[in-house]
Protein backbone atom coordinates (compact mmCIF):
# COMPACT_ATOMS: atom_id res chain seq x y z
CA UNK A 1 0.00 0.00 0.00
CA UNK A 2 1.49 3.35 -1.02
CA UNK A 3 1.88 6.40 1.23
CA UNK A 4 -1.11 8.29 -0.15
CA UNK A 5 -3.48 5.38 0.37
CA UNK A 6 -2.17 4.79 3.90
CA UNK A 7 -2.47 8.48 4.71
CA UNK A 8 -6.05 8.77 3.53
CA UNK A 9 -7.12 5.62 5.37
CA UNK A 10 -5.44 6.93 8.54
CA UNK A 11 -7.60 10.05 8.30
CA UNK A 12 -10.87 8.10 8.42
CA UNK A 13 -9.82 5.13 10.59
CA UNK A 14 -8.23 6.30 13.83
CA UNK A 15 -5.12 4.91 15.52
CA UNK A 16 -7.20 2.50 17.61
CA UNK A 17 -8.33 0.90 14.34
CA UNK A 18 -11.93 2.06 14.82
CA UNK A 19 -14.13 4.61 13.08
CA UNK A 20 -17.43 6.49 13.34
CA UNK A 21 -18.64 7.70 9.94
CA UNK A 22 -21.57 10.12 9.84
CA UNK A 23 -23.63 9.67 6.64
CA UNK A 24 -25.84 12.46 5.35
CA UNK A 25 -26.06 11.20 1.76
CA UNK A 26 -29.66 9.98 2.05
CA UNK A 27 -31.00 12.81 -0.08
CA UNK A 28 -29.39 11.38 -3.22
CA UNK A 29 -32.35 9.00 -3.54
CA UNK A 30 -34.79 10.09 -0.77
CA UNK A 31 -34.81 13.85 -1.33
CA UNK A 32 -35.29 16.10 1.74
CA UNK A 33 -35.21 13.33 4.34
CA UNK A 34 -36.66 14.13 7.77
CA UNK A 35 -34.05 16.07 9.78
CA UNK A 36 -31.92 16.57 6.67
CA UNK A 37 -34.06 19.28 5.12
CA UNK A 38 -31.17 21.64 5.93
CA UNK A 39 -28.14 19.32 6.13
CA UNK A 40 -25.70 22.00 7.24
CA UNK A 41 -27.77 22.86 10.31
CA UNK A 42 -28.20 19.20 11.23
CA UNK A 43 -24.57 18.18 11.05
CA UNK A 44 -22.87 21.28 12.49
CA UNK A 45 -23.14 20.22 16.17
CA UNK A 46 -22.30 16.59 15.31
CA UNK A 47 -19.09 17.06 13.34
CA UNK A 48 -16.82 17.31 16.42
CA UNK A 49 -17.77 13.73 17.31
CA UNK A 50 -17.51 12.18 13.82
CA UNK A 51 -14.39 10.61 12.36
CA UNK A 52 -15.56 11.24 8.78
CA UNK A 53 -18.55 12.61 6.90
CA UNK A 54 -20.20 10.55 4.14
CA UNK A 55 -21.78 13.06 1.76
CA UNK A 56 -22.58 13.87 -1.88
CA UNK A 57 -20.69 16.55 -3.75
CA UNK A 58 -23.70 18.87 -3.94
CA UNK A 59 -24.28 18.93 -0.19
CA UNK A 60 -20.53 19.07 0.46
CA UNK A 61 -20.19 22.22 -1.64
CA UNK A 62 -23.22 24.00 -0.26
CA UNK A 63 -23.51 22.84 3.35
CA UNK A 64 -20.06 21.94 4.71
CA UNK A 65 -17.55 24.59 5.74
CA UNK A 66 -14.43 24.14 3.56
CA UNK A 67 -12.40 25.32 6.55
CA UNK A 68 -13.51 22.26 8.52
CA UNK A 69 -10.91 19.56 9.09
CA UNK A 70 -13.48 16.73 9.00
CA UNK A 71 -12.36 14.00 6.55
CA UNK A 72 -14.85 13.44 3.73
CA UNK A 73 -16.00 10.18 2.17
CA UNK A 74 -17.67 11.20 -1.07
CA UNK A 75 -20.79 9.38 -2.29
CA UNK A 76 -20.18 8.82 -6.01
CA UNK A 77 -23.02 6.53 -7.10
CA UNK A 78 -26.67 7.37 -7.69
CA UNK A 79 -29.14 8.29 -10.46
CA UNK A 80 -32.12 6.49 -8.86
CA UNK A 81 -34.91 7.57 -6.49
CA UNK A 82 -37.52 6.18 -4.11
CA UNK A 83 -40.24 6.80 -6.73
CA UNK A 84 -38.28 5.22 -9.56
CA UNK A 85 -38.61 1.70 -10.91
CA UNK A 86 -35.55 0.15 -9.24
CA UNK A 87 -33.18 1.60 -6.63
CA UNK A 88 -30.47 -0.77 -7.83
CA UNK A 89 -30.16 0.88 -11.24
CA UNK A 90 -27.27 3.10 -10.16
CA UNK A 91 -24.43 4.65 -12.11
CA UNK A 92 -21.24 6.46 -11.17
CA UNK A 93 -22.00 10.16 -10.77
CA UNK A 94 -18.63 11.78 -10.15
CA UNK A 95 -15.44 11.89 -12.20
CA UNK A 96 -12.01 11.11 -10.81
CA UNK A 97 -11.04 14.73 -11.56
CA UNK A 98 -13.88 15.97 -9.35
CA UNK A 99 -12.94 13.52 -6.60
CA UNK A 100 -9.39 14.85 -6.60
CA UNK A 101 -10.52 18.48 -6.84
CA UNK A 102 -12.72 18.09 -3.75
CA UNK A 103 -9.71 16.72 -1.81
CA UNK A 104 -11.67 13.87 -0.23
CA UNK A 105 -10.23 11.14 1.97
CA UNK A 106 -12.22 8.32 0.36
CA UNK A 107 -15.18 7.57 -1.90
CA UNK A 108 -18.23 5.35 -1.49
CA UNK A 109 -20.28 3.40 -4.03
CA UNK A 110 -23.28 1.08 -3.64
CA UNK A 111 -23.51 -2.43 -5.02
CA UNK A 112 -26.70 -4.49 -5.29
CA UNK A 113 -25.71 -8.16 -5.29
CA UNK A 114 -28.56 -10.42 -6.38
CA UNK A 115 -30.53 -7.63 -8.04
CA UNK A 116 -31.38 -7.15 -11.70
CA UNK A 117 -28.49 -4.69 -11.82
CA UNK A 118 -25.88 -6.77 -10.01
CA UNK A 119 -23.47 -6.70 -12.95
CA UNK A 120 -23.80 -2.96 -13.52
CA UNK A 121 -23.26 -1.98 -9.89
CA UNK A 122 -20.34 -4.37 -9.42
CA UNK A 123 -18.83 -2.95 -12.62
CA UNK A 124 -19.28 0.53 -11.11
CA UNK A 125 -17.24 -0.61 -8.13
CA UNK A 126 -14.52 -2.20 -10.26
CA UNK A 127 -14.27 0.85 -12.54
CA UNK A 128 -14.07 3.18 -9.54
CA UNK A 129 -11.33 1.10 -7.91
CA UNK A 130 -9.37 1.11 -11.18
CA UNK A 131 -9.48 4.91 -11.29
CA UNK A 132 -8.98 5.65 -7.59
CA UNK A 133 -6.09 3.28 -7.01
CA UNK A 134 -4.03 5.34 -9.46
CA UNK A 135 -4.33 8.30 -7.09
CA UNK A 136 -4.17 6.54 -3.72
CA UNK A 137 -7.86 7.10 -2.94
CA UNK A 138 -9.60 4.32 -0.96
CA UNK A 139 -12.98 3.04 -2.12
CA UNK A 140 -15.68 2.03 0.36
CA UNK A 141 -18.21 -0.41 -1.08
CA UNK A 142 -21.74 -0.24 0.31
CA UNK A 143 -23.66 -3.52 0.21
CA UNK A 144 -27.08 -2.02 -0.47
CA UNK A 145 -30.28 -4.06 -0.48
CA UNK A 146 -32.71 -1.43 -1.75
CA UNK A 147 -36.22 -2.03 -0.45
CA UNK A 148 -35.61 -5.76 0.11
CA UNK A 149 -34.53 -5.63 3.75
CA UNK A 150 -35.24 -9.34 4.24
CA UNK A 151 -31.95 -10.01 2.45
CA UNK A 152 -30.05 -8.93 5.53
CA UNK A 153 -28.76 -12.30 6.70
CA UNK A 154 -25.22 -13.56 7.18
CA UNK A 155 -25.21 -15.73 4.08
CA UNK A 156 -26.23 -12.91 1.72
CA UNK A 157 -24.15 -10.21 3.38
CA UNK A 158 -21.15 -12.52 3.58
CA UNK A 159 -21.42 -13.11 -0.17
CA UNK A 160 -21.79 -9.41 -0.95
CA UNK A 161 -18.97 -8.19 1.28
CA UNK A 162 -16.53 -10.80 0.00
CA UNK A 163 -17.27 -9.90 -3.62
CA UNK A 164 -16.66 -6.21 -2.84
CA UNK A 165 -13.32 -7.04 -1.27
CA UNK A 166 -12.38 -9.26 -4.21
CA UNK A 167 -13.05 -6.35 -6.59
CA UNK A 168 -10.69 -4.11 -4.65
CA UNK A 169 -12.73 -2.18 -2.09
CA UNK A 170 -10.50 -1.06 0.79
CA UNK A 171 -13.45 -0.93 3.24
CA UNK A 172 -16.91 -2.49 3.06
CA UNK A 173 -20.02 -1.05 4.67
CA UNK A 174 -22.70 -3.63 5.37
CA UNK A 175 -25.67 -4.31 7.65
CA UNK A 176 -25.48 -5.88 11.06
CA UNK A 177 -27.17 -9.28 11.24
CA UNK A 178 -27.34 -12.45 13.31
CA UNK A 179 -24.03 -14.38 13.15
CA UNK A 180 -22.30 -11.20 12.05
CA UNK A 181 -18.89 -12.72 12.78
CA UNK A 182 -19.39 -14.94 9.71
CA UNK A 183 -19.73 -11.85 7.52
CA UNK A 184 -16.59 -10.24 8.96
CA UNK A 185 -14.66 -13.52 8.98
CA UNK A 186 -15.14 -13.99 5.25
CA UNK A 187 -14.14 -10.46 4.30
CA UNK A 188 -10.38 -9.73 4.05
CA UNK A 189 -10.82 -5.95 4.36
CA UNK A 190 -12.26 -3.89 7.25
CA UNK A 191 -16.04 -3.99 7.71
CA UNK A 192 -18.13 -1.04 8.88
CA UNK A 193 -21.70 -1.46 10.14
CA UNK A 194 -24.49 0.40 8.33
CA UNK A 195 -27.18 1.99 10.46
CA UNK A 196 -30.23 0.92 8.48
CA UNK A 197 -33.77 2.01 9.41
CA UNK A 198 -34.31 3.98 12.59
CA UNK A 199 -34.57 1.78 15.71
CA UNK A 200 -37.28 2.09 18.35
CA UNK A 201 -34.96 2.87 21.28
CA UNK A 202 -31.48 4.22 21.86
CA UNK A 203 -30.51 1.03 23.68
CA UNK A 204 -31.40 -1.07 20.63
CA UNK A 205 -28.92 0.94 18.56
CA UNK A 206 -26.25 0.72 21.24
CA UNK A 207 -26.67 -3.04 21.50
CA UNK A 208 -26.25 -3.79 17.81
CA UNK A 209 -23.28 -1.43 17.53
CA UNK A 210 -21.59 -3.02 20.54
CA UNK A 211 -22.30 -6.56 19.39
CA UNK A 212 -21.12 -5.81 15.86
CA UNK A 213 -17.87 -4.37 17.20
CA UNK A 214 -17.35 -7.41 19.41
CA UNK A 215 -17.86 -9.62 16.36
CA UNK A 216 -15.18 -7.88 14.30
CA UNK A 217 -16.50 -4.65 12.78
CA UNK A 218 -14.10 -1.70 12.97
CA UNK A 219 -16.86 0.87 13.39
CA UNK A 220 -20.12 2.25 12.05
CA UNK A 221 -21.60 4.41 9.32
CA UNK A 222 -24.65 5.60 11.25
CA UNK A 223 -27.02 8.38 10.24
CA UNK A 224 -30.75 8.18 10.90
CA UNK A 225 -30.31 6.63 14.34
CA UNK A 226 -28.27 9.70 15.28
CA UNK A 227 -29.66 12.79 13.57
CA UNK A 228 -33.31 11.68 13.75
CA UNK A 229 -32.94 11.18 17.50
CA UNK A 230 -34.41 13.92 19.71
CA UNK A 231 -30.96 14.30 21.31
CA UNK A 232 -28.51 13.68 18.44
CA UNK A 233 -25.41 15.09 20.13
CA UNK A 234 -25.96 12.92 23.20
CA UNK A 235 -26.54 9.90 20.95
CA UNK A 236 -23.39 10.62 19.00
CA UNK A 237 -21.26 10.83 22.14
CA UNK A 238 -22.77 7.68 23.64
CA UNK A 239 -22.08 5.66 20.50
CA UNK A 240 -18.61 7.09 20.26
CA UNK A 241 -17.91 5.70 23.72
CA UNK A 242 -18.77 2.21 22.45
CA UNK A 243 -16.66 2.57 19.32
CA UNK A 244 -13.55 4.19 20.76
CA UNK A 245 -13.69 3.41 24.48
CA UNK A 246 -15.23 -0.08 24.42
CA UNK A 247 -18.15 1.06 26.57
CA UNK A 248 -20.96 -1.45 27.05
CA UNK A 249 -24.53 -0.65 25.93
CA UNK A 250 -25.48 -0.05 29.57
CA UNK A 251 -22.59 2.39 30.01
CA UNK A 252 -23.47 4.13 26.74
CA UNK A 253 -27.09 4.44 27.84
CA UNK A 254 -25.91 6.05 31.05
CA UNK A 255 -23.79 8.54 29.10
CA UNK A 256 -26.77 9.33 26.88
CA UNK A 257 -29.09 9.85 29.84
CA UNK A 258 -26.60 12.14 31.61
CA UNK A 259 -26.06 14.29 28.52
CA UNK A 260 -29.78 14.36 27.74
CA UNK A 261 -30.51 15.67 31.25
CA UNK A 262 -28.15 18.60 30.67
CA UNK A 263 -29.75 19.61 27.37
Care to describe what's here?
It is built from twelve helices and ten strands. An eight-stranded parallel beta barrel has the order 1-2-3-6-7-8-9-10, surrounded by six helices. The protein has 263 residues and is α/β, with parallel strands linked by helices. Helix 9 runs antiparallel to helix 12 and helix 11 runs antiparallel to helix 12.
Q: Output the structural class.
A: alpha/beta
- Which percent range describes the beta-strand content? 15-25%
Q: Any guess at the CATH architecture?
A: Alpha-Beta Barrel
The CATH topology is TIM Barrel
CATH superfamily: Aldolase class I
Number of helices, where a helix is a run of at least 4 consecutive DSSP H or I residues? 12
Q: What is the average of the pLDDT values?
A: 95
Cα-based radius of gyration, to the nearest Å: 17 Å
Q: Trace the largest sheet across and list its strands.
A: 1-2-3-6-7-8-9-10
Question: Which key terms come to mind for this protein?
Answer:
263 residues, alpha/beta, TIM Barrel, eight-stranded parallel barrel, two-stranded antiparallel ribbon, 12 helices, 43% helix
Short note summarizing the structure:
The protein is an alpha/beta fold and 263 residues long. The protein contains twelve helices and ten strands.
